[in-house]
TrEMBL record:
Pfam families: UPRTase (PF14681)
Protein name: Uracil phosphoribosyltransferase
Family of this protein: Belongs to the UPRTase family.
Function: Catalyzes the conversion of uracil and 5-phospho-alpha-D-ribose 1-diphosphate (PRPP) to UMP and diphosphate.
Entry EC number(s): 2.4.2.9
Annotated organism of origin: Xanthocytophaga flava
């Protein structure tokens, strides 16, 4: 598991601003910080991918370099995933994209919930590098529901899960079903409250980015 905040960097500022109860009220800045954090994590993920030699013709000669063996598929879970996904597509600008409309349904009396899922727009995943972006990995239910339903689109060669903030509980839950998944996390927080929100976390990432949904 890669945790960006374990090595102090400017990315800590982006995460701090995402969390800051005052700064996060500026919706444009919240979305921009998710995007910038996405760009930082995209760079880190890119270092783990497979490269092959390529010759580049310059005006003065030939340069030999290493380029991606294959473009990844960038998947994201609506709504909160979109700004972080934008950061990834800024970096992996030749990648195919996948969109999943999965969300935590109306909570029961004990605040437990099921995942509702309708819309999916997926390319063929067989043999691809799949990068699934969802800023909050709380219980892990959204990610599991999503990955389970993606099985009908082919088996990816590798699976990368990207979150701005995650909990050990969410990581462990996903690892039970997808032990091959690689985790790329902005910051690892310690727990969930009784409403299954991450503590200290940042609040509701979708609402902060796009307004409270009814
Ligand atoms: O790990 P989990 O317990 O499944 O929680 C994480 C999910 O909850 C939030 O989505 P939400 O259902 O609030 O929808 P939204 O993104 O539209 O706000 C968040 O964006 C994650 O997708
Ligand atoms: O803390 C959390 C947990 C789930 N979804 C969010 O948006 N925030
Ligand atoms: Mg939400």
């Amino acid at each position: 598991m890669f945790v960006l905040s374990e090595t102090p960097s400017i990315a800590n500022h982006f995460i701090a601003e995402l969390r800051d109860i005052d700064i996060q009220k500026d919706r444009m800045r919240f979305r921009r910080n998710m995007e910038r954090l996405g760009e930082m994590l995209a760079y880190e993920v890119s270092k783990s991918l497979t490269y092959e030699t390529a010759q580049i013709q310059t005006p003065l000669g030939v340069s030999e370099t290493l380029l991606l063996e294959q473009q990844p598929v960038l998947g994201t879970i609506l709504r909160a995933g979109l700004p972080m996904y934008q950061g990834f597509v800024n970096v992996f600008d030749r990648a195919e994209s996948a969109f999943i409309g999965a969300y935590r349904g109306k909570p029961n009396d004990d605040y437990s919930f099921d995942i509702e899922m309708q819309y999916t727009a997926m390319p063929d995943l067989e043999g691809k590098v799949l990068i699934l972006i969802d800023p909050m990995l709380a219980t892990g239910k959204s990610v599991i529901r999503t990955l389970t339903s993606l099985r009908t689109f082919g088996k990816p060669a590798s699976l990368h899960l990207v979150s701005a903030i995650a909990t050990p509980e969410g990581v462990n839950y996903v690892q039970q079903y997808f032990p091959e998944a690689k985790f790329w996390i902005g910051a690892l927080d310690e727990s969930l409250n009784h409403k299954y929100y991450i503590v200290p976390g940042l609040g509701d990432a979708g609402d902060l980015a796009f307004g409270e949904k009814m």
